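In this section we walk through a basic example: taking a raw amino acid sequence and producing a predicted 3D structure, encoded as discrete structure tokens. The instruction is simple. Fold the sequence below.
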Amino acid sequence: MQATVSPAEWADKTPEEIFRGHSATVAKRLLDLGVATLGLVVLLPVLLAIAIAVKVDSRGPVLFVSRRLGRNGRVFHCLKFRSLTQDGRETGLGSLLRRYGLDELPQLVNVIRGEMSVVGPRPLLASDCPRGEVRRLKRFELMPGMTGLWAAHEAESMPFASYISPDETYRNNWSIWLDVVIVMRSTGAALAGRGR
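The resulting token sequence is shown next.
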């Protein structure tokens, strides 16, 4: 007979351990691939229009690439539409892109490549997290997300320590249904211009 796992023990286990023998982890990846693929197909004209607008709006590359920490602390290159000039000022188009979360649409490619999830912990800058923190924080057991509880808590401009609570809460309460709810709320916030 299979041993049961009490809720108290779940806090020390990864989602893979909790759902071992079940399809939740596979379902999450399928949800990621489905949402990202559909998003890229449906939004292709929008992505092309934004890319042209970014290029015309100011000098510099269309995409901004930053080194972020992924699952198990692995570094990956996170993609965004560039919203700042070379000297760090916001471009004319940048404010609009950030307000509606459009600057993060290229991360759909990161999702398809398996570097990110649609929903997950916030992808921290590789330079912002000490090596010891990577080993200690359980948030790195999951792939970082394009959105997550951190977005719902409006943690965008808060210091590093502020990311821990929403990310750890998500990690400990993860479910496919929670992902669906977060995607719906994040989409609604972006459409309402509350992306930042």
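Looking at the output, two observations stand out. The radius of gyration is 17 Å. Residues 22-191 form one domain. In the next section we compare this with other chains.
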